[in-house]
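Collaborator request log, item 7. Partner lab (contact: R.S.) asked for a structural prediction of Thioredoxin to inform their binding assays.
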Amino acid sequence: MSFLRVFALIVVVAALGAAAWPGTGRFAFAQEHEASSPAPDFAGPGPWFNSPPLTLSGLRGKVVLVEFWTRECINCIHVLPHTRELYDRYAADGLVVVGVHTPEYDEEHDLTALKAAIHQYRIDWPVVADNDSRIWNAYGNQFWPAIYLIDRDGRLVYSHFGEGNYEETERRVRALLGKA
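Returned to partner:
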C-alpha cells in the first residue's frame, strides 16, 4: 500500500474516531479503483470447493465479486448472509461470487474444517483455499472481510473492507450488471 493510501486511511480512522481496524466490526471503508486496473487472477492456490478452478480469463464477460474471508472471523460470518443475498439475487444475471479463504490462524489451514464451514454457512458459490496467501498478496489485501468487484472486462473497480455498506455494494453490482 502506498504511503498516501496509508496516510489517507489513518486520517479517515482518526476522523471517525474509530478504535479498531476492519475485521473488528467497528470500522469499514470502501475504495474506488482506477478503471484500468486489471484484477489479479486466482492462479496457484487450492483446492477449490463447489467448483473446478476458476480464472479471470475464464470469467471474462461476467461481473465477479471476490470475497476474502476466514472461517473463524466473526465479521466475515456476519457478511456471509449479505453475500448470499447478492449471489441468490444476481447469479442468473451474470454475477459470479468467488470466496477466497485466506487463514489468519494456523488452525484455519485445515481443509476438512474449511469444508465443514462451507457446509455450515450454506456457501454454495466457488471457494478457493488460499492457504499460502498467494491471492491475498496478489490483491494487496490486508483485511478480513474484504470484497472486491471486477467488471466484465476483468478490471478491479471497487472494494469494501469490513462489515456494512451492503446497499452501496449492491448498487455497484447492479450497475456493473446493467441493472441500475
